[in-house]
Amino acid sequence: MARLVKNTTLENVAQFLEMIAPKSLAGSWDNVGLLAQAPTPCEGNGVFLAVDLTTEVADELLSLRSMNTAIIYHPVIFSPVRSLKLAVPLQQSVLRCIAAGVSIYCPHTCLDAMDGGINDWLVVGLAYPWEDGAPQEGEIVALLKGGSNSKPVEPCSAPRTPTEGLGRVKQLARTCTLADMVSRTKQFLGLQHVQIALADGKNMSSTLGSFATCAGSGASVLRACTDVDVWITGEASHHEILAANAQGVSLIITNHTNTERRFFRDVFAPLLRDQLPALQVHVSDKDRDPLMTV
Q1: 101-121 burial, b for 16+ CB within 10 Å, e for fewer?
Q2: What are the residue ranges spanned by the domains of the chain?
Q3: Contact 155/165 with Cβ under 8 angstroms?
Q4: Most buried of the four, 151, 167, 196, 269, by CB within 10 Å?
Q5: Which amino acids does the record list as binding a divalent metal cation (predicted)?
């Protein structure tokens, strides 16, 4: 049997992720962890970060040459597969990485559920009073280290703390209007447009005292949160929107990955550079949400 070549970079990354966002935090339906391991790893010490491994992102990753490990947020293998073929574009990207010596680790809902993870980051950024002025550089990350003072919507089956879980519910220290929250969402996530769905009897001047948020396709997690004023998430189905609106809950929808991508640049990459200083961390320039407003 052929022996795997020792991959110190991958081992360090996997150990670090298991420490801060263990696989036990993942949703029961999710597929997380080391999903593709290169038998002969690239000799570089680079770690590449992206939300999705599209063909364009794979081209960027492999052009860098020194990347040893890719942390791809969304699982590159999710549904059961019977084969891996170059003729299937998304599978081709995985196979190309393996052939080039790049292993792929996918943390997905582990990063969502952890304390100080994506959902806490969303809470801190959306609760910040942007209408009084934008935060100073690094201020959101500093506030995040102090906790989001929110509650999980779906606690993990094996949480390390009472605050770990999917989704977050936040009571605002100071009320704002729905228009304010729309503006906060766009400024915080760097968006020109969002979609809104007004609850029955509500308008843009309606007062908000609370919100619930969940990264990605979060409406399925938030559906039980009918005692808040607004949901802020990346995706919701037509019927999920109608049901929420009928129960008095408005929605702000950003498109799926827009709730996730800036976390990698603003929080996760600096954390890796600080905790694993021997590694070269690169955040994808090509990774983007596939949907555009025209």
Answers
A1: bbbbbbbbbbbbbbbbbbbbb
A2: 8-111+262-283, 114-253
A3: yes
A4: 167
A5: 74, 112, 256, 260
Q: Assess whether pLDDT exceeds 60 at residue 20.
A: yes
Report the binding-site residues: 74, 112, 256, 260
Domains 8-111+262-283 and 114-253 share a fold: yes
Under the banding of pLDDT at 50, 70 and 90, the label for residue 4 is low
- For residue 62 the two structure tokens come to 């492999």
Residues annotated within the binding site for a divalent metal cation are 74, 112, 256, 260
Nearest to 127 by CA among 80, 74, 184: 184
**161 closest CA partner among 169, 151, 171, 170:** 151
Q: Is 69 helix (H, G, I), strand (E, B) or coil?
A: strand
- CATH assignment of 114-253, among 3.40.50.1820, 3.40.190.150, 3.30.559.10, 3.40.1390.30: 3.40.1390.30
- So what's the architecture of 8-111+262-283 in CATH? 3-Layer(aba) Sandwich (3.40)
Q: Dump pLDDT digits (tens) for 82-98.
A: 999 999 999 999 999 99
Pairing status of strand 67-72 against strand 46-50: parallel
Dihedral (Cα; 117, 181, 244, 149), 10-degree rounding: 40
